[in-house]
Design goal:
2 strands, 89 residues, two-stranded antiparallel ribbon, elongated, alpha+beta
C-alpha cells in the first residue's frame, strides 16, 4: 500500500492507494475537493432580488386591490376594436 502526506494550508492530509498512479489521482481529487469548498463569499452569495424595503408581513401597498369589473387596458382595446369591426360590416 502506497501512501503520501500532503500539507495544504497548514493541514496535513494522508492519501493512500495501491499504486503510485492511485496516490497521484487521490492527491489531485483531494486538492480539487478542497478548492471547491474554498470559493470566495462573493461567488457563493447570490444577489438578492426584489425591493429591499418590502418585507414579509408588512401592510399591503394596495389594500383595496383592483376593483371588481375593472378591465385590463389590452382587453379594453381589443373589445373596442372588435366593436368597431362589427359596426362597420
Amino acid at each position: 500500500m502506497k501512501s503520501k502526506e500532503i500539507k495544504i494550508d497548514g493541514i496535513t492530509y494522508k492519501v493512500s492507494a495501491s499504486t503510485d498512479r492511485g496516490v497521484k489521482d487521490a492527491e489531485r481529487m483531494l486538492k480539487k475537493s478542497l478548492k471547491q469548498t474554498k470559493k470566495p463569499k462573493t461567488q457563493m452569495d447570490k444577489p438578492k432580488r426584489g425591493n429591499p424595503n418590502l418585507y414579509k408581513g408588512m401592510p399591503s401597498l394596495n389594500p383595496n386591490g383592483r376593483p371588481k369589473g375593472a378591465m385590463n387596458k389590452t382587453t379594453e382595446n381589443i373589445r373596442k376594436a372588435y366593436q368597431q369591426l362589427t359596426e362597420t360590416t
